Protein: HTH-type transcriptional regulator CueR
Amino acid sequence: MASSTTYTISDLAREFDLTTRAIRFYEDMGLLQPRRTGPGGRSRVYSARDRTRLKLVLRAKRLGLSLSEAKELIDMYDSPRDTGPQLRKFLQVLAAHRRQIEDQMADLQATLDEIKAHEKEARALLARLGEEPVVADPSPLAGPQKTPRGRAEKAA
Structure:
């Protein structure tokens, strides 16, 4: 069932909370292929297929895939080939990313354990000195808060 619904770049930017510049970047990377209309082909008209591809790109980014990996996988689904090889490739990419994230989690856990050990040691030293430990607010270590578009919020 073909859909004749079309979208402007502003429609997609609003729907997915992206900048129009990001959408143009995805187009430059070959991830989206809008029709060009108007004088000199300056206006972009995105199809339902482009919208779906954009959703898949954003999902791939959340999974930690690079844009080139996302493009390769999405392009496979556009081809008339059998889905078996496509699914095997997808599983390989996911397995590699899972291993990478598991390694990162192990590194983070080791760092967290080290921090906890230092905190315990510092509290013990303060107790020996007869002083109350100060409970520090961890938020300064967290860095600036991010907006949905990934931009740092300005302090009021």
Remarks:
- The beta strands are 6-7, 35-37, 43-47.
- The chain has a mean pLDDT of 84.
